[in-house]
Design brief:
The complex is a heterodimer of chains A (204) and B (251). Chain A is an alpha+beta fold and 204 residues long. Chain A has helices spanning 26-39, 57-66, 81-96, 102-114, 126-133, 159-173, 186-203; strands at residues 6-10, 45-47, 53-55, 70-75. Chain A has a four-stranded mixed β-sheet. Chain A has three domains: 6-96, Conserved hypothetical protein from pyrococcus furiosus pfu- 392566-001, ParB domain (Alpha-Beta Complex); 99-134, no CATH class; 137-204, no CATH class. The termini of chain A are far apart. The longest helix of chain A has 18 residues, at 186-203. In chain A, a hairpin with a 5-residue loop joins β2 (45-47) and β3 (53-55). Chain B is α+β, with helices and mostly antiparallel strands and 251 residues long. Chain B is globular. Chain B is built from six helices and twelve strands. The chains are: A alpha+beta (204), B alpha+beta (251). At the A-B interface, α4 of A face α1 and β2 of B.
């Protein structure tokens, strides 16, 4: 892969790709313009050997509206027709696939706000920013009084263990000594009876 | 420096509280099962958090207050405060949380919390917030793994605990009554705070230090010969152990 080189080219020499599927609203172009004014032209336009734009149509439009004559470009050489076509889409789509760590984002935005930085320059609209950074909680419903005195327990058993336990529970269920006073689940009562006996035996 | 009266405390989302806990709590770990997450703000900036939720061993804790039902108590699991929060923010934040919980969840009659006297402190903030001390136990549940990671040992843990070494120090259990009438139902004696020194369980900001030593230091710093300039103070978790000797305690 050849080393990338940034070249400044006259904005009027660049050729927009006729099949560019990415759209740029005027609102977004205005955001890019504000960003360029604040931070400069930091992200070069990607072009092919014929000055045809692969990525950066929005940046070019913003630059032209700002009256910028020379724009930074990087020429991607040697792409096949298919690669070129695909990369026009992939460059945009791959960036869209990234996510946000909302906690870090909120802390960073808080910090920028406390530095009196213009948050409009971040590219979020106000509503979007409020939603992303909203941390207000809602009171959950908490248990009032006693919880149900019954629980379900789950174990992972091998088939052989299952049949052993099934046999034991089945036999224990018919034992007249089983206490059914607090639970009407016969399997639960049988299992408790077995465990109780085991504990008593272990004490001896 | 703003005063603690200027802080705002409100319910926040769990992930936001967890981020603050991870950032400022000495353990670096938020609790997974917190139900009520409070944020502590100064000038609209989130700088502290308190997490309340069900204790892991609620069944064992309920008998501490006779007649307690399942939903009568909650645990203050974690709290952490950043350096921008003013002095005494901790006790003020706890007081506000207690008021909110009492108003919103009238069924919650008491709050339990544990001070970690192996790595953090013996509960200065709890004592300042009207909690009563109900046990001082030698640590049996906090351990260091061979990797250096500090973990809590409990029955439900699936971690490989081989080679784990229990940390030296104590764990202190505190209870705060939201319904004062429940105090008479406490089934264990209230332990006088002096007992902390007697049992050599004193710890402040991660260092073994008795309450008596802290009081003496405070008096020394407040003596007329030492007045004449602002004395830097820090909140509980915002101080590095190297800085300890240069700061005033609030006990």
């Amino acid at each position: 892969m050849s080393e990338l080189k940034i070249e400044y080219i006259s904005a009027t020499d660049l050729v927009p790709y006729e099949n560019n599927s990415r759209t740029h609203s005027q609102q977004q172009v205005d955001q890019i313009k504000r960003s360029m004014t604040e931070f400069g032209f930091t992200n070069p336009i990607l072009i092919d050997e014929h000055n045809s734009i692969i990525a950066g149509h929005g940046r070019l439009q913003a630059a032209q509206e700002l009256g910028i004559k020379l724009v930074p470009t990087i020429t991607l050489k040697g792409l096949t027709k298919a690669q070129r076509k695909a990369y026009v889409i992939a460059d945009n789509k791959l960036a869209l696939n990234a996510g946000w760590d909302l906690d870090v984002l909120r802390l960073e935005i808080d910090l920028l706000g406390s530095m009196d930085f213009d948050l409009d320059l971040l590219g979020f609209d106000f509503k979007e920013l409020s939603t992303l950074t909203d941390i207000d909680g809602e009171f959950p419903e908490l248990i009032d009084g006693d919880k149900e005195p019954f629980q379900k327990k789950t174990f992972t058993l091998h088939d052989e263990q299952v049949s052993l336990i099934d046999d034991a529970v089945l036999k224990a269920r018919s034992n007249p000594l089983i206490d059914e006073g607090i639970n009407d689940n016969s399997n639960g009562n049988a299992l408790t009876f077995i465990c109780k006996q085991w504990l008593e035996n272990a004490k001896r | 420096m703003p005063s603690a009266k200027e802080i705002q405390v409100k319910l926040i989302k769990k992930h936001a509280a967890a981020a603050i806990i991870q950032k400022y709590h000495y353990s670096g770990k938020a609790t997974q099962n917190s139900q009520l997450n409070f944020g502590v703000f100064i000038n609209d900036k989130l700088e502290g958090a308190l997490q309340f939720g069900p204790p892991i061993d609620r069944r064992k804790l309920l008998p501490l207050v006779k007649g307690s039902k399942w939903g009568d108590m909650i645990e203050l699991n974690r709290m952490a405060f950043g350096p921008l929060l003013p002095k005494f923010s901790e006790s003020r934040a706890i007081a506000v949380c207690m008021r909110i919980i009492k108003k919103q969840y009238s069924q919650i009659k008491w709050v339990v919390s544990f001070a970690d006297g192996t790595q953090c402190g013996d509960g200065t903030i709890y004592r300042a917030s009207g909690f009563v001390l109900t046990s001082i136990n030698k640590n049996s549940t906090i351990a260091r793994l061979p990797s250096g990671e500090i973990v809590a040992i409990h029955g439900t843990s699936k971690r490989d605990m081989s080679g784990a070494e229990r940390l030296a120090g104590h764990q202190l259990r505190y209870i705060k009554f939201l319904d004062e009438s429940e105090r008479q139902n406490l089934t264990v004696p209230i332990i006088p705070f002096e007992e902390i020194d007697k049992r050599n369980a004193g710890m402040y900001l991660g260092k073994k230090k008795s309450i008596k030593q802290r009081r003496a230091k405070k008096q020394e710093l407040e003596s007329p010969s030492n007045l004449g300039g602002a004395i830097p103070t820090c909140t509980l978790q915002s101080i590095s152990s190297d800085d300890l000797c240069n700061h005033v305690t609030i006990d």
